[in-house]
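Homework help board

Subject: predicted structure for assignment chain

Our instructor gave us this sequence and asked us to write out the predicted structure in token form, then describe one feature. I got the tokens but I'm not sure how to describe them. Can anyone check?
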Amino acid sequence: MKKLFLIFTALNILFAASAQDKFKFGDCPAELLQMTVYDKDSTASAVVIYENCRSHYEISPTTSDFQIVTDYVVRMKVLTKDGISFSESSIPFYQGSSRAASEEVKNLTGFTYNLENGKVVKDKLSKDYIFTENVSDNNKRLKFALPSVKEGSVFEYKYTLVSPYYFYPRDFVFQRTIPVIYSVYQIRFPEYFRFNKEVRGYEPIKVVSTPENEHFLIGGNSLSCNAEEITAEVNDLPALKDEEFVWNYNDYKSQITFEISGVNITGVYYKDFSNSWNKVVTRLAENQNFGKQFNDKGLLKNELPEALNGLSNSNDSIRAILNLVRSKIKWNGKSNISVSNISKAMKEGTGSSAEINALLLNALRNSGYNAYPVVMSLRSRGRIPMTHPGDDRLNYFLVVAYVNDTPVYLDGTTGYTDLNVVPPDCLVDRALIIYNSQSFDWVDLTGIGGNVTRVNINARFNEDGILTGNFVETYSGEHAFAFKQDYDKAENEEKYIEKRETSDNVEISDYKTEKRVSTGNFNYLEQYSFTRPEVRLDADIVSFNPLLFEAMRTNPFKPETRKLPIEYPFPQEDRTNVLIEIPEGYAVDEVPSSQKFIYDEAGTIAFSYIIQQSGNKIQISCITSLKKCLFATTDYTALRDFWSKVYNKQNELVTLKKL
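My token output:
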């Protein structure tokens, strides 16, 4: 076994050292098929053996304009059954109103290799396994699946993408959820184009820029110019492993991106594309499908007076406007920034996030409020690259209204939102409030809500010696959003209760829930009676966790090291109060000690656990407070130690002893 392991290790080293030299599309060496494990990551389900992407500029024979041509090839090794899924892939492309305005995927070819009876068997990608999927009206995906892929297979494919959008080279992402032995990206820019490049990620990328000569054929005439060739490559790039509390893994993948800053064809054409956030704001404010959509004084002109009748409090009025908008347009699931047609969406009763929030903004302004769009990139779509201002990375907006100079943030897409309660995907750390074409502010949305849970549990042992009790929990802010969303996802209330029973290991009866609205905010109340069969008086000594099913069940920070920052969903406070009646004939033998932990001097995270006995009752008060979302990787050791202490404290036991 040791000798066999050394052989596989040697093979892996050989592949890593010379993948770029040994690769030949259409010919797979038998030793690669014999490989069963990747020595640098024994948990890998698959590994990228070789990847090569090269982009260059050509003159289109159709338009006589520039186009960008990208040749891509990749080879992967499947190591386990879980790795088979990587043989299904897709190529996104844009289909415009004409051929000249459309991207084209050409020459897609692929092979799968398997070792059967000591011989390499080769299967070709069939047209039967290639089809086009519509993502939207213009955005398409060419989807395909390599044939005969199984554990141990090697597969490869290549294609050419021709794009008329030569101002916008695609980002190239090197890092994946599986390791990459070798990958290279190369692009050659004619001297006429100036691009800013950005390298992102936590793993190193080797980037080299070299001067080259370039030649183009235009109408039978040859054009020669200087060019810059940029080569970026990686060797032995580790997989980006799953780590809890990360908003979007794509933010941290090793990658290279390009953004155009200028075009200069001497004597023919010049344009400065250099951007600033001031320019971005001006363009958006003057855009017919954005800023020009927010001053329609006729929208809801007849409905608003009735909706606001009798309301003197601003918060109540704003909530009434929000509910009116939601009653007019239901969300169709599309999240975007471009407003198509508000009137059409109202007529049809359905629309995108942009139509809904544009109607909301207009309704607020028409009711006398100072209201503005708040533009962002959703968490699920990645952070805004602050070093490269541009509106192409902005994909969503919600609304802010001011009440006595105090901002109130609103989103009308779902029924779970309220004042300062928006979809968690919108709780980004950088968003842009656009006041007008010349004025804007950056805002952090992570802490806009009062996100609190309050739990009260009264427990006692019944006549059968089984722990029973009453449970009441109040959800506020984003907790209310999450509770209602989870509740509504269930097939019915019975199914939701069954899920709670399984999760908390209890039996539930007399279940009730209700929405409560106050001037400041709204919350949901959940209450029920429970029986905890696993805690019973069946021995002289009985031990159990006094926090019951409210204690931390796992510690998310067990690994000793971490590569990525820690990104909590939102700041929050969780309060749990438990009152346990000591059964007759028993006395308290052991109880946890009261204790408090503070993460830092600023009290960014605080935890308190207070326990006391009064007569025949044990009372516990447990409070956890988190005041910010984002922590750097360098904070991980301190966070790990803090949450380890919290986890241990929350899982200490009370012991009762029979008299």
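Reply (TA_rk): Your tokens look well-formed. For the description, you could write something like this. The first strand starts at residue 46 and ends at 59. That's the kind of observation they're looking for.
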